Amino acid sequence: ATADIGVTGLAVMGSNLARNFASKGFVTAVHNRSYSKTRALMADHGGDGQFVPSESAADFVASLKTPRKIIIMVKAGGPTDAVIDELSELLEPGDILIDGGNAKFADTIRREAAAKEKGINFVGCGISGGEEGALLGPSIMPGGSAEAYASLGPILEKISAHVDGAPCCTHIGENGAGHFVKMVHNGIEYADMQLIAEAYDLLRRGAGLEPAEIADIFAEWNAGELDSFLIEITAEVLRQVDAETGKPFVDVVVDAAGMKGTGTWTVQTALDLGVPVSGIAEAVFARGLSSSALQRSGAGELPGPNNAWSIKDKDAFVEDVRQALYASKIVAYAQGLDEIVAGAAEYNWDIDLGAVARIWRGGCIIRAVFLNRITEAYDGKAERPASLLFAPYFTSAVAGVQDSWRRVVAGAAQSGIPTPGFGAALAYYDGLRSPRLPAALIQGQRDFFGAHTYKRVDKDGTFHTLWSGDRTEVQA
Ligand code: NBP
């Protein structure tokens, strides 16, 4: 047995991850259900490092040094369970089995508990960055026990992306914590993409700019506080011209956004936890609307406003949109981090939000310079701010841009350009800063029709008004 680490599942993610391990000097055992993929990896990249290929699972397990460390990179769901079942029979107590796929965190909690019965350390590990990240350095979010991380962590840290010398990998928390945080990462990614798309739409339909001009604007934004992978690739996508028609690429692509489910999971989980993640939810719903062919088939028949947006100063408008994007993005991150806090409370995870933001700075899809500010908002603080929006840096950042934000949302509504992400973020922000909310009226309505009771602002206790009687108040 010579291998330091094993990878089973050699489709695009697994083979790139295996190559990453081998390139960092780890002897890497490789295995795949159908041997053809293992053979192809060896033929194409066998010389890039030290690989130990095996055709059978038994040989694969036998090729690893103990305690064995095996990363499963197969399709999430049933295939992952099938691989876990097969390997569990071959592993020994103390071995570490890592699921690097996009598992649901609840599955990870279940799998970790089952593996523990056999003495196996199960690590549900979120990996972000797609194929390129897997090969060159992803952002890695491992859950599982601290003991497992003690021996596994240094290996994962070595193959992860690095920013300012720090690895984009940290122990997130017990059992499902890693996959939970990866799920929220993807939800934030949905929100980020939707907000960028809204900014593009405003510049296009509001200011009448062409995609190539908007590409330049995004490239410029990428040099400032919005500096991020998603803004960078947005500029490139907008600059792309279709070879066949000579039209902008964005004009020849069908405007129906696909999704694989992690955004939906983020929202479903947030609903279960009672956490408002309206920015992420609107992003998922906006993709849903874009793909609702039946409902959209009558698009031209619905009347809109009579007046188009009259934008007198284009540069000022572009700056307004940039600031609205920045503010809305802060809200999306604040909401996603709230979901992590709520998940940690529900499942007893000790999650360090500053460290999470730190490992998202490189390798992953939402990597952005602004994550440094999020890390600073939490690092070394005796008390965590109740929301990212209450961290002084972000309070003043939003205060400074809110006039622009309000102008953009109001103008978009008046001219009929949909901005569900910008609008939901602003409504959330205004909700958060309102000392009184109309929820008091809702409590009254609930008490009226369902005797659901209410609390008073001026004394303790629970009360009910006899709505169908003499309308006096009684203690409930
Ligand atoms: P896929 O998700 O397409 O899965 C293909 C792999 O699963 C192949 O190795 C296949 O083996 C194996 N497999 C299947 Br399908 N059923 C199996 C079974 N019953 N037993 C054993 N192996 C089985 O691969 P991927 O796109 O490389 O993604 C791998 C994981 O990484 C997924 O969970 C994915 O969600 C996650 N992920 C993907 C990305 C990305 O950008 N693609 C990013 C982050 C995470 P075979 O060759 O024998 O059919």
TrEMBL record:
Pathway given in the UniProt record: Carbohydrate degradation; pentose phosphate pathway; D-ribulose 5-phosphate from D-glucose 6-phosphate (oxidative stage): step 3/3
SUPFAM superfamilies found in the cross-reference section: 6-phosphogluconate dehydrogenase C-terminal domain-like, NAD(P)-binding Rossmann-fold domains
Keyword Kinase: no
Matches recorded under InterPro entries: 6-PGluconate_DH-like_C_sf, 6PGD_dom2, 6PGDH_C, 6PGDH_Gnd/GntZ, 6PGDH_NADP-bd, NAD(P)-bd_dom_sf, Pgluconate_DH
GO molecular function, one term: phosphogluconate dehydrogenase (decarboxylating) activity
Residues annotated as the enzyme's active site: 182 (proton acceptor), 189 (proton donor)
Binding site for substrate: 102, 128-130, 185-186, 190, 260, 287, 446, 452
Catalytic activity from the UniProt record: 6-phospho-D-gluconate + NADP(+) = D-ribulose 5-phosphate + CO2 + NADPH
GO biological process, one term: D-gluconate metabolic process
Keyword set, alphabetical order: Gluconate utilization, NADP, Oxidoreductase, Pentose shunt
Amino-acid positions noted as binding NADP(+) in the UniProt annotation, renumbered to this chain: 9-14, 32-34, 74-76, 102
Enzyme class, first EC level, given as a word: oxidoreductase
Keyword match Kinase: no
EC annotation from Swiss-Prot or TrEMBL: 1.1.1.44
Domain spans labelled 6-phosphogluconate dehydrogenase C-terminal: 178-468
Domain of life where this protein originates: Bacteria
Subunit field text: Homodimer.
Role summary: Catalyzes the oxidative decarboxylation of 6-phosphogluconate to ribulose 5-phosphate and CO(2), with concomitant reduction of NADP to NADPH.
Protein family: Belongs to the 6-phosphogluconate dehydrogenase family.
UniProt xrefs under PANTHER family: 6-PHOSPHOGLUCONATE DEHYDROGENASE
UniProt-recorded name of the protein: 6-phosphogluconate dehydrogenase, decarboxylating
Lineage: Bacteria, Bacillati, Actinomycetota, Actinomycetes, Nakamurellales
